[in-house]
Structures are given as C-alpha cells and as structure tokens.
Design a protein that fits this description.
The protein has 232 residues and is mainly α. It has one domain. 71% of the residues lie in helices and 0% in strands. It is built from 11 helices and no strands. Helix 3 crosses helix 6 and helix 6 packs antiparallel against helix 7. It is globular and about 60 Å long.
C-alpha cells in the first residue's frame, strides 16, 4: 500500500504559521527563561517554524495576485498599524526606533520581488543582484525583525520557484548559515515543499491574517500589563 504524502493549501500554511508564531510570542512575553528553561526553549523552537512559511506564502501571493499594487498597499498599511503593538509587546513602549516589526521586512521583500520581476524580463542578473543588496541594506538600516535574512529568504523562495528541491535546498542552506536558534526554522520547509496551489480549501476572510498580527500582540501586551498592575 503506497503512502500518500501530505498536501497543504495556502490557508493551512497560514494557520500553521500564525499558531507557531503565537506560541513563540507567548513564550517570549510570559515564560521566564530561567525558571522554565525547557518550556521557554521548546516554545521558541516551535516558533521558528512560522517565519519561513510567511515568507513562502508571501511569494505565492505575489505570483498569484491580480493586483500587486493592492497587495503592496495592504502590507504597507498593516506594517504601520502593527508597529505600536509590536513596540508595546516586545519593547514595553509605544514608540521605539530600536526595531521594526516583521511586516516591514516582508514589505521590503515584496518591493524587491517587484523590481526583480521587471529585471527578470530583461534578463539582467546584475540589476537583480543590486536590488537585493538595496533591500538587504534597507532592512539593516531600519533594523527590521529578521533583517537581511528575511529579505534574502523571500528572494530564494522566488528565484528558485521552478524547482522545489533546489528551492528547499537553498532555503535550508541560508537558514543554517544564519545559525543560532534560527536553524530550527528548517522544520518549516517540509510544509512549504508539500504546498499545492491547486488544493481547494475554505478561505478565511482576506484581512484575517493581516489583522491577526497587530491584534494578537496588543492582546498579549494587555494581558501582560494587567498582570504587572495586579502584581501577578
């Protein structure tokens, strides 16, 4: 009897990504790394699964969207809407320039893909390389979450889209080069490999996944704040 490999649609990938991200953020905000080291590390490792999936889904959205300008506008709006919740949750202040939320990384990545697609039609490798360097530099200067690593990972998923095995290989190599706890992000790659764009799934409202990011950060910060005020 032949075993069938699992197949995931885009909605399933997004749900896996937001649940593992939620797990990661709960650990970061509420779990004491010294008192509960095993729980903290385990939840943070599980959380590493989320970002590569978000990058992969971003590329799939870019390749399938009918209006890239609207796609870009949505990401731009929610990146700015998410900044205060991000600063509150992770930096304990409503405004900070120390780090920008991950949607800015993805926004930069999307801008890079748009320009790469233009240069791809020209067959100009030098221009594609330069636009990637500019995107990485922007992520570093703005100090976005995942920084240049996120921009490069998005480009790897895009440039290797015609060959899934090479796509996963280069993504894995990049993850291992980046190192640290991020090496556990390789566990996201099987989900991306088994993605099927033709798989029919129930589609959740378009803005659900955009809104989830700032809302869950705001809720987690609110719970943390109530706990601090009440001495919990």
């Amino acid at each position: 009897m032949e075993l069938r490999r699992p197949v995931f649609g885009r909605t399933t990938l997004k749900i896996i990504a937001i649940l593992t991200m939620l797990c990661d953020h709960i650990a970061y905000i509420f779990v004491d790394a010294w008192e509960n080291e095993g729980l903290y590390v385990g939840m943070r490792i599980l959380g590493r699964v989320s970002f590569p999936i978000f990058c992969f889904v971003l590329v799939q959205g870019f390749l399938s969207t009918r209006d890239v300008k609207k796609y870009l506008a949505r990401l731009f709006i929610f990146a700015f809407l998410s900044e205060i919740p991000f600063d509150l949750a992770f930096l304990r202040t409503p405004f900070s320039y120390d780090m920008q939320n991950v949607l800015f990384t993805m926004l930069i990545g999307l801008l890079v893909l748009i320009k790469m697609q233009d240069y791809e039609q020209e067959g100009n490798l030098i221009k594609k390389g330069l636009v990637l360097l500019v995107g990485c530099a922007a992520a570093i200067v703005l100090n976005t979450d995942y920084s240049y690593f996120g921009v490069i990972l998005i480009c790897v998923f895009y440039l290797m889209r015609q060959n899934k095995k090479l796509q996963m290989f280069w993504a894995m190599l990049l993850i291992f080069i980046y190192g640290g706890r991020e090496v556990y992000a390789v566990f996201a790659l099987p989900f991306c490999y088994w993605y099927d764009p033709q798989r029919k799934e129930v589609r959740l409202p378009r803005y659900f996944f955009y809104a989830f990011y700032p809302l869950h950060l705001l809720i987690l910060w609110g719970i943390w704040r109530i706990g601090i005020v009440n001495g919990i």
